[in-house]
Amino acid sequence: MEEGLHLSNGMGFSPALDNFYLIDTILRKVYVYDYHASTGDITNRRTLVTLSRDEGLPDGMTVDREGFLWIARWFGGGLSRFDPAGKLERVIKLPIAQPSSVMFGGKDLNEIFVTSASVKWDSGFAPSNHDFSSPRGGGVYRIIQDIQGNLEFKARV
Questions:
Q1: If you average pLDDT over residues 24-48, what whole number do you get?
Q2: What's the order of all strands across the beta sheet hosting 111-116?
Q3: Please, which residues have CB within 8 angstroms of residue 87's CB and are 6 or more apart in sequence?
Q4: Rounded CA gap, 48 and 29, in Å?
Q5: Confidence at residue 15, expressed as pLDDT on a 0 to 100 scale
Q6: pLDDT at position 18, please?
Q7: Do β-strands 69-74 and 57-63 pair in parallel, antiparallel, or remain unpaired?
Q8: Contact, 42 vs 35, CB < 8 A?
Q9: What is the pTM of this model?
Q10: Active site residues
Q11: What is the per-residue pLDDT across 96-140, written as a single tens digit (0 to 9) for each?
Q12: Has residue 72 got a pLDDT over 80?
């Protein structure tokens, strides 16, 4: 469905199912496409967000009920929440450098679960001031918010 990606990661859909979001981690970009639910086609790719090197690499992503994107920032030590126009709305810092993905859960879908990675990746993609001796991660974190997520789609593999 798409070509020319460097490292495809987080995917999500707008609540109205008219937009599809996709992260290209190495380029630090979040793309938005027009999504055609009747056919499953995506068209009209445009860049919604570009992270700076100091913000880390965008990795896993989910979309909340209000249509805001939650992005785990590998080497960035936290989560960023962007509105549907791509404006940064909030940042949540975590005590680890490598959050890898984010998902809503819990009975009311107001609990954010963040996975993280413990593997050391000595990469030139890290921010210039990144401390490779800082805690990388490896655990799962739970954050309770006053924002609700959506049920995610199940893959048919």
A1: 96
A2: 99-105, 111-116, 140-144
A3: none
A4: 8
A5: 96
A6: 97
A7: antiparallel
A8: yes
A9: 0.93
A10: 59
A11: 999 999 999 999 999 999 999 998 777 888 878 877 778 788 899
A12: yes
How many other CB atoms sit within 10 Å of the CB of residue 18?
12
Cα separation, 26 vs 38, in Å, equals: 31
Contacts of 3 (CB under 8 A, 6+ apart): none
Q: Which residue has the tokens 């490598």?
A: 98
DSSP annotation string for the chain: -----SSEEEEEE-TTS-EEEEEETTTTEEEEEEEETTTTEEEEEEEEEE--GGG-EEEEEEEBTTS-EEEEEETTTEEEEE-TTS-EEEEEE-SSS-EEEEEEESTTS-EEEEEE-------TTS-TT--TTS----SEEEEE-S--B-PPPPP--
* Structural Rg of the chain based on CA atoms: 15
Contacts of 106 (CB under 8 A, 6+ apart): 144
The one-letter amino acid code at 5 reads: L
Least Cα distance to 79 among 95, 59, 97, 93 occurs for: 93
User: Which tokens hold the place of 115?
Assistant: 């996975």
